[in-house]
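User: Last request for today: this protein with aspartic acid, please.
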Amino acid sequence: MQRTLTKDLVGKVGEEVLVKGWVNTRRDLGKIIFLDVRDKDGLIQTVVASSASPEAYRVVQEIRSEFVVEIKGEVKKRSENTINKDLPTGEIELIAKNIEILGRSGTPPFDVTSDGREIGEDVRLKYRYLDLRRPRMQTNIKLRSDYMQALRQALLKKEFVEIETPILTKSTMEGARDFVVPSRFQPGKFYALPQSPQQYKQLLMISGFERYFQFPHCLRDEDLRADRGFEHTQLDLEMSFVTREDVMNTVEDVVKEAIQKVGGRLKDQKFPVFSYEGAMKKFGADKFDLRTDEEKENGTLAFAWVVDFPFFRPVNKEEVSDKFDSKSEWTFTHNPFSMPIPDHLDYLMRGENVDKIITTQYDLVCNGLEVGGGSIRAHKGEILKATYKIMGYSDSQIKESVGHMLEAFSFGAPPHGGIALGLDRQIALLRGEVSVKESMAFPMTSTGRTSVMDAPSQLPKEQLKELGIKIVDK
Ligand code: ASP
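Assistant: Here's the final one, the structure of the complex with aspartic acid:
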């Protein structure tokens, strides 16, 4: 007999069906036991009566919450006074004839039917596979899938090509420390995990793809905050032969289309644009919330652009990543691969008025948070070199760091620009969640441990030996 999903039971009154799923709740009224059986879409109330089906009644004695069961029975209309209007299947129930236990469950460490906000993060993430069973998390993760598909469709319509780039790679500066991976074949050498696919996507422009996107995982060894892990997913894109406005308009179209497709509510059809200076004056910050109180209540998303950021800022001596990135007193504010605005190209090339140079960077903010950023890139070697010179790099240090990009630029690089949007954050905003972790299947704990699996962990001695690594006390 074929399985019927709970969502398809409504049309099957009077029929015999086979239902499979988890026991959401069990209510024991003595001669009758009620099981609410849950599958990926919903619930069905199941009645197991001692008189009508003694065999099923015997099996149900053992059954507890979260057991996996299959139940053969008949779909019946509920009597008028027991209809549950809150449930799509509230007018029917399943009269069990046969029950089989497919998987037993110990007592779960927490209730998976609540919204889970009362439970500590450590235990939720240790048992994330159970935590994900709760309806709130099912909705969040499914919305994530729907939103990604909607973005993908919108981009494909605009002739973007989805291209993956490597995870084992060389350092790309995004203002954080790199995660590194030792090489077994070349002891003493390391790969860096990508802080972003920045250089690869630029190389793809040089390859002639003209419009690229992917949903990359980006890894940044940053200080952890309640809502920031080491790993995040972006919608990353890059376009050739474009101005800053072209990229902003394209992103706006794509984001708007996808948000509307998943039922999100937008404040503005045309996202307002603020200059960095204007935003600082008006809001005291470059991330700001344009919603009214009423819009905050009803889950509106208020997007805005911020442009005309300073290209450089003084190095913060306390910040270790600043020390890695810069060799002078200046480091980049957003992205070293950016182009300055045309009027300031001369300053950059001459290394003058460094504090005044404005970059082509554009940031997308939503409801008080930064949700993305990008820029028009320097597509000529001498421009990228000038940026590195301002950051104090010698010719040989520039070659070591971005020599491959300079070489690539020498073979016909089109003008290009792009952006990366934080996907986790957008899902959280769409769902009115405060933490990005609520939009990820397996996020990290606030102390940097992985969900369910206990990483980071020690390596066996033999593995260290093979990699030529000795652990020393710091
Ligand atoms: N690499 C991004 C860009 O497209 C920025 C980021 O990853 O945050 O400019």
